[in-house]
Each structure stands twice: as structure tokens, then as C-alpha cells.
Amino acid sequence: MDFRKLTPAQTYMILKPIKSKNTDLMKYALLDLLYKEILELEQEWKYPHPRRRRESLFIYITRGKNFDQYIEKPHQDIFIQSFTSKNRRIQLRKLIKEALPLCSNGQGYKALQLIKEFKSYGIFNHAICVKDFNLFFLNSKGRSLRNTIKNTLYQHNEVLASEDLCNTKLSKIIKELGSNIFLLENFNNELVKKVDVNMRFEVKNVVDIEPDLELDTLFEVLSTPLFMNIDLIDSFSSIFDASYTTDFNNFDSSSDFSSDDFFDANGDY
User: Fold this and answer.
1) Crossing angle, helix 167-177 and helix 140-161, to 10 degrees?
2) Is the model's pLDDT at 226 over the cut of 50?
3) What counts of helices (H) and strands (E) characterise the chain?
4) What is the pLDDT of residues 98-130, one digit of tens each?
5) Residue (of 151, 87, 105, 120) closest to 243 by Cα position
6) CA distance 160 to 49
């Protein structure tokens, strides 16, 4: 199976059709857009208020270089809509707040966005799905697909945890999984930094040899704005959860200095 045809949000719902949280699914949908450089992640340290003596970290999202190549998907359209009329540089928290009303404050994300796309796959039993309670059940075809995905992810997780992991092996995993690599528990910022250092060392010391396609692929992926800011990925869940539970009805999307929109340098961001 070609995992590149599935976004990590779609894959995660297949793996956990009932237990998957709407906020996690939305997080994976956005990570896919960042991975493919449809959207771009930026970070900036600045003073959130003139009277504040310590800088805080602001996370922004803007159009990526591949924005015009975006193919419509209902579960990702809720993020893209904020950039269709014009390019914007919007804080991550505010982007989430703008997206939430489009899926019933996040509660209807599975029912309103993802489940529509899965109709053509024929892997869910629509006769017994209860949309009002976010209860969705795989049919036999769906269960078979889930087993295939679980086995594939398990094997790749083992490779990432092995002592003989090399750039070539990681490159092959990225080629097979694409953005679904975010579903691997052993794929984290420490691993990315370690491999990135080794990769740059190899590039620096390689002279007059045939081009290494595996190394080129890895270099291309790890050089994107998303992985240049890999430390921020671990904060995505907390940001989504916080935005999900915060009252968003009266937020001002034009203000840069709402008290909930910056992240303390020494705190959980």
C-alpha cells in the first residue's frame, strides 16, 4: 500500500476510529500540510508586551512554497481557507481558533470532514456509525487495512530504535511513509537532530562520488522549515488542546498580543 495517499490524520483515524481525539486528528492534518510545504511554520522571539522584560516564543503559519499545489481535502480545507483570499502570517493558536467553527468547535471533525473522504475507500461500516457520538466502525476491509498499517508502522519503529539506524534507512522510511512518519513513536526531535548532524557531516566529507539519491532525499526533507523548527512539534498537542477548550467566540484575529497567544521561553510552549 502507498502510504503517501493517506494523510497522517486519515491513517490515525483508521488505526483508532473510536478512540482518536478530534484535536489529535486536526494536529496531524496540519502537520501534513507543513510537511508538504503547502503551509510553512515560522517562529519568532519577541516581547509580547512593552512592559514585559522577557521575550516569548510566537509560532506563526503562512503559505508555503507549494501552496498552489494543494489538492482539496475536506479535513484540511478548514486550515487552507484562512489563506485562500490572501497570504497571511497568522499565529498557530489563532489559526486553530478560526478552523474550529468550521467543524462544530472540533466536536464534529470526524463526522463533518474525515468520514466524508472515507466513503470512497469503502472501509467503514456506515450502517452502524453514530456520527452524533463520534462512533465509527471499520468493516472487514477496513480492519484488514488497519492490520497492514499497524504492522508496517511497527516494523519502521523498530528500525528507528535500532543501533544501526543510518541515513539510508531513514530515507527509505520517509519515502514509504511520507508525512505518516509522525505516527512513529520513535520519530522525534532528538532523532532528527542526530541524523541531521550525521547527514551534514557526510555531505561535507563526500567528494567526487556518484550522487547519493537517498541522502539527497533526506537532505531535502530535513531542510524544510518544518524540520528546521522540529523542537516546536512536541508543543502542537498542548496548543491544540488549549485552543479546543478556550472560548473562541470573541477572539480578535488582528491582535498580536492576546494573553493566550504567546509562549513563555521557560514554560510549556
Assistant:
1) 160
2) yes
3) 12, 4
4) 888 888 777 788 887 888 788 888 888 876 666
5) 105
6) 43
Torsion angle in degrees (nearest 10) through CA of 31, 36, 38, 42: 60
List, as one string, the DSSP characters of 176-232: HHGGGGGG-TT--HHHHHHHHHHHHHHHHH--SS---HHHHHHHHHHTSHHHHTGGG
- CB 200: neighbour CB atoms within 10 A? 12
170: exposed, middle or buried (C-beta count within 10 Å: 0-12, 13-18, 19+)? buried
Evaluate whether 110 touches 78 at the Cβ level (below 8 Å).
Answer: no
- Report which DSSP code applies to 163: T
> In the predicted model, is pLDDT for residue 200 greater than 60?
no
- Which grid coordinates are listed for 21? 481525539
CB contact at 8 A, 17 and 137: yes
115 touches 129 (CB < 8 A): yes
Cα Rg, the chain, nearest whole Å: 20
Q: Which three cell numbers stand for residue 119?
A: 466513503
Instruction: Report pTM.
Output: 0.79
